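Regression report. Comparing outputs from two consecutive submissions.

Submission 1:
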Amino acid sequence: MSAGALTDLATPSGWTWKPLWAVTPRVAEKGYGDLKPLSVYLEHGVVPRAEQTDNHNSLGADLDGYLRVLPGDVVFNKLRTWQGGLGVSRDEGIVSPAYFVCRAAARAEPRFLHHLLRSAPYLAELTRRSKWMPPSQFDISWDALRTLPLLLPPHDLQRRIADFLDDQVALLDRAIHHRHTQADLLAERRSSSLEAIFGTSQDSVLPLRRVVVKWIDYRGATPTKTSSGVPLVTAKNIRGGNVTFEASQEFIAIEDYGPWMRRGLPIRGDVLLTTEAPLGEVAQIDDTDIALAQRVILLRADQAFIHARWLYWYLRSPQGQSELWQRATGTTAQGIKAERLRELPIPIPSREEQLRLMRDAERAESAWQESVPLLNRSAALMGERRQALITAAVTGQFDVTTARSVA
């Protein structure tokens, strides 16, 4: 079965197809501004706004113009429906008039509709029916939504499927939440370890300008970008202590490389620091066949004072990052000016102590790097399992009364 095509869905015996408007017609009841505001979240469905702290959209001035929602109503965020921005409300309240509110008819179990509309084939169909709204949203009209064909079993079976999925999806959601919590705790542990390592009192501190023998800021107009040539490392390519081209990769022509890098070519071990958009990302050069863009500064450590790897780790440490951000300026995009960066204090322990602390930092980083991807992968697999379970149950691919629990 193609997960993205409703026409591929078989019709189990006793199941029927009905248009959405006949199963859960749209309602628009206004004049209830004293009720609590609700919002639709991709992960949580319909919940009171007061329970979430990450909703920064302002309420309208006239709440009486908002739409009343009753327990069991299906609410659609028309700009996010394609992503699962819909759900069944457990509360009475009001939502923005930009939402669609639908009230399930007697023949429909709202909780079943919640799972059905979040299944893989329905999310694909909702995306297909939506209109692209750059840069990252789709808008679905009521005319496109109202005719959506719903595959419905008898009402008692809808309830049994909803009961099963409510239980099993909640179990998977809790397990996914635990994985994310574990990853967050490991990140906190890594940060605490680095803070302890680099928080040791030092005998001396020197400004950054005193501990580097080369400082290159590649200013000027960037050469024309090409589809091949020398990889161009921009600020967005420096993440997590490394140079990565996973998100995007740009090139400059080979003939432009020399003139652009006339200030100096990188060598292995040089430290890169982003000065804006974003500020404070750090990497150490391994591959020297690269060109460096604006907002990326090359720092070459003076080996008489510090190891290059020490400079790399200190700039990544909580203390180094704090010093950077204390010197940042700007409102919309925080950045650091060269004169401020040159005075950044760099602790200088003995070379033996530098080596010892670097080894400790490497161990803390390695433990984090090894564990977090495994936890994230586990969470992703459980998310895939959840979607497969929902899709199979709401389309009649298995009998929920004989299904084994995921617990």
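Submission 2:
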Amino acid sequence: MAGTLYIVATPIGNLADITLRAIETLKNVDLIAAEDTRVTRNLLSHYNIETPMTPYHEHSLSRKLDEILQKLRAGGDVAIVSDAGTPGISDPGHELIVQAIENGVRVQSIPGPSAVITALVVSGLPSYRFAFDGFPPRKPSDRRAFFCSLKDEARTMVFYESPVRLLSTLKDMLATFGDRRICVLREATKLFEETFRGTVESAIRRFTEVSAKGEITIVLEGCAAESKPPSEGDIDSTLTSLLESGLSERDAAREAAALLSIPKKKVYQRMLELVKKHDGG
């Protein structure tokens, strides 16, 4: 019987931000596949975990993938961890997860810290709909083309970025998106954590004056809707369609609010009126 691949989320900075379940999992598996064994060794030492480790990163992927899959197929349990946060997000862990699934290996997530969610919720920008777009391309022309493809994205956007490219990325954002609201979260949960909230232009001034260091997550406001707000008829037809698809009244209201980009309270009020009208009240 094949073993289990555990996707274990680890702290994004503060070592105390780890779940009891993650500690128990890391202690009990047969092997830990780590993106950076030096980083993971500090975590394991802190919690007195003595499980063997093997490096698994973009440079060892082709060599280590078969080795780890073979161990899983033989019945061994393996935990995969990234440098920080949840594996499989902008790191080589995704390939191992896909291969494990295709080989019939049980895959289980041990949830925990995520830089994406951490930055999103402290940004103050709309969080009911958002898109994670990973690292922008390094090459300036590719990066500008990438941003152009997102120019009409209405959802809040979350990006990762290197401190050495932060300023050029912000300048490309200003040129492409205009002076939208932005949040730059640096060194999240660490001693020198910094949360900058403002506009893209003010962020450029801030990080021109003081060079950024450490891990960086950018949260950018989506584009403003240029079309007129949906009418009551638009809301009614959307709700009716969702209800006919089998959703509950609460779920239909929530989904309609997201689809139409309007407050849930307004949609729910229309829902109550529709139900009352349907019941002949």
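Expected: both submissions complete independently.
Actual: both completed, but the second showed a warning that disappeared on reload.
Relevant detail on submission 2: The mean pLDDT is 90.
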